[in-house]
Every structure is written in structure tokens, then in C-alpha cells.
Amino acid sequence: MVKQKDTFINILVQISRIIVGGLFIFSGFVKLVDPIGSQYKFEEYFSEGVLNLEFLIPYALPFAIFLIIAEIVLGVALLVGWKRKFTVNSLKLIILFFLFLTWYSAYFDKVTDCGCFGDAIKLTPWETFWKDVILTILIFFIGFKIKFINPILPRNNNGFIVFLSLLISAAITWYVLVNLPIIDFRAYAIGTNIPEGMEYKNDGKIPPIHDFFLEDSQNDLAPQILAKEKVILVIMPSLEKSNYSAFPEIKKLATDAKAKGYSIYGVSASFSDIIDLTKERYQLDFEFLFCDETTLKTMIRSNPGIMILNKGTIVDKKNWRNIDQLDL
Prior knowledge:
Elements: H1 2-32, H2 35-46, H3 60-80, H4 84-108, H5 125-144, H6 157-178, H7 194-197, H8 222-227, E1 231-236, H9 247-259, E2 263-268, H10 272-282, E3 287-290, H11 293-299, E4 305-310, E5 313-319
Parallel strand pairs: 1-2, 2-3
Antiparallel strand pairs: 1-4, 4-5
């Protein structure tokens, strides 16, 4: 009878192990391909109107990267059975941290999307909270029956797999930060037609693209610009935080693009004073338009970033470091 009970508990532990490990790896991966998105989310959590921890905002990106990689590595460690006590205790700390954040978001209605699955899967705050409640129960159950967590491979092979997951995660993080997300789950992915994404349908859902406008001092020029065949947008959500070493290359791009019939626009949420100073200092001879900063951060994870449009369809987008890879 005791043996049958142990067998049943062991089955439950292994199922819980697979669910927890798999979800942590999946959750980490969909954020790993776009760590800047998680940075923005933690900046929102740290802001005055939410947790009021503004002194942590400058550390949002390294904090996000640490948590993302930790999710993946601990998920792998649980599945292979590496250092089970350390792994399970670490999972407990992380899930309790997430549980607090998701409860706070849901109860006080502070952050409408926790970003736990990046932009891949959107959950309501309460859906996210109850998902974390279930994960908390499973992790503490595994910890209570930790004797059933055994390594799946002999000797040091399990540790090697965990270390390999760490190296791969770090390499992907570096690549994405230097370039752009390797998988784009957002509404401004290459191939998207912006006007179609702004259309309201009779299904009660919000269009995937909203708050998109390109304003000069008087009008929204978005309809005109989205109708053109050859358009380049130089996107700078915040000129104050832009990488200024990009502007000499952007000036060259603008000259080449205009010679090939492109219309080129700078787009920023910054005030006109800093725009005028930047244009004068770097001799940028193209018009600047205004757009919401959050929208610009969603459009491209680079400051500055380059987006090419053809009749409103996103043809290409690049980090400023990869300007030379643009095909005009």
C-alpha cells in the first residue's frame, strides 16, 4: 500500500516537474527574444504611479535580463534534476516575487499586462495572478516531495546541460540587444500593413495597432505617409536617450535614400528644442514628426531604429548598428 502511494506521488511530482520546468522555459524564451520589452515593463512597475521605486529604473534592463535567464536556466535545471534543493528554492523565490507583482497589478489595477509571456501571449492581470497561484502550489508541492526529483543523466552531464542553457541564453541576449528581436511578436512585425492593423472590426476587440500618428505642428500626416510607396522612418522614442554615434550614419542613409526616391522622416516624442539642436548639430535634412513614445518603443527596439514602409506595409526594420544591411 505504501509503495502504491509513493508511486502515485512520484507520478504527480514528475507531472508537476514537467509543467513547471516547461512553463518557466517557455516564459523565459518568449522574453529572451525581446529583453528590452521586459525592461520597459519593469520600468513601468518601478515608476512612481506603481511601486514608486524610481531609483531602480536605471537598472531595469540588467534586472530583466537576470530574471529572464534565471527562468530558463532554472526550468532546465528542474527538468534534468540538477542541484534539486537549490533549484527548487530558487524557483520558490522567483514565483513568490512574480506572485506579488501579479497580485499587485490585478488588485490595484496598476499594470494591465504583466508581460509574463512577453508579447507572445496576452493575459489579463487576474488570469496571470491565478496562473502564478497554480505554479506556486506546484513548486511548493515539488519542494515538499523533493526526494522524488532525481537527475535524468549520470555524473556531471546534467550540470553541463544547465551550463549550456546559460551560455545559449546569454548569447541570444547579446545578439538581440545588438540587433533586434529574433522573433517579433508585436503588431509592427515585418510584413504587417499598418492601415489594416488600425481598422476596427465588429468583433469587440481593440485593433492591434492603435495610438499611431505622425504629427507635424498642425496635422496628422500618417494617412499621407502610409499611402506612399517608398518611406523611411528614423524612429527615436527619446532623443535624449538616443545613441548619438548613429546620426552620422543616418545622415548618409538619408542622402542615399533621397537619391533613390525615398521620403524620409524622423519620428520622436521629444520636444522641438532638442530636435532642432540635433538636426543642426548633425545636419539632418529631413522633417521630424511627433508620435507617442510608447508607440515608438513598440514599433522598434532600438533608439534610433530604421523602418522602411511601402504603402503602409513594413518592408524592413533595422537597429541603427545595421544600417549598412538595408536594401534600398
